[in-house]
Amino acid sequence: MAEVQVDEVEGGERRRRRPLAEYAAELEAVSLSVRAAPPLRLKALVRACHHALALFDLLGVEAGFWKTEYAERLVALERAAEAMDSAEELVDRDVAAGRVRATGTHSNNLVRVKRGIELKRALFQLMLAQLQQQRPGGGGVSFDGVVSMAYAAVFARYHDKNVQSTVADSICAIPVKSISDFFATINETDESAAAEMQKYIDAANGIISYIDELFASRGVSADF
Fold first, then answer.
1. pLDDT tens for residues 178-207?
2. What angle separates helix 42-49 from helix 64-80, to the nearest 10 degrees?
């Protein structure tokens, strides 16, 4: 397995980063905030989702285009947040202009970022299920296997056959081969990762539902 370092050197000392824990904590803060006092603040959402970029690095060079595309969406929303404080204002502007679904609009970028949250929710749900079914000495589904299943559940229907084939090749090239290896590269044990994944799933449920309901309340679907 190719070695991937997520640690950082800070003040001459190596700090063991925990990108999953960082991501889950930030997303949980956004979910709790919007539940207690809407609207959904764009800057907070973008800041939380930036933590996902460290996880993309673990998927190998073949998946670099996923990270690039996701980062571009986040940068676009970050720029939008300089003029618009909330997701509500962002969607309302595109609804008024009749351009919600147009490529490159802020609403389009918001939906793509939401789908990224959905992908990782599906991935963590699958990994939790594997941990719960794990038997001593048993193999279970490989890491690339659960990534493939998560992609099929969330993104595949939006992609044509050529894109699906490219994604499949990229998934096969992922250097991390087992779920436990994935946890080790992000400085987690099976037990600690399970707790962080559940925290992420709970937070993601709230944010995904909120964004879907936001679009529905404006008479449009976020399924595009």
1. 999 999 999 999 999 999 999 999 999 999
2. 160
Q: Which residues contact 200 (CB under 8 A, 6 or more apart)?
A: 20, 23, 24, 27, 28, 120, 121, 124
The H or E element that residue 154 is part of is helix 143-154
Q: How far is it, in rounded angstroms, from Cα 93 to Cα 40?
A: 15
Q: Which residues pair with 13 in a beta bridge?
A: 10
Burial of 24 (0-12, 13-18, 19+ CB in 10 A): buried
CA distance 44 to 86: 10
Residue ranges covered by each domain of the chain? 18-132+139-217
What H or E segment, with its residue span, contains residue 198?
A: helix 190-217
The CATH fold assigned to 18-132+139-217 is Glycolipid transfer protein, GLTP (1.10.3520)
What is the pTM for the complete model shown? 0.90
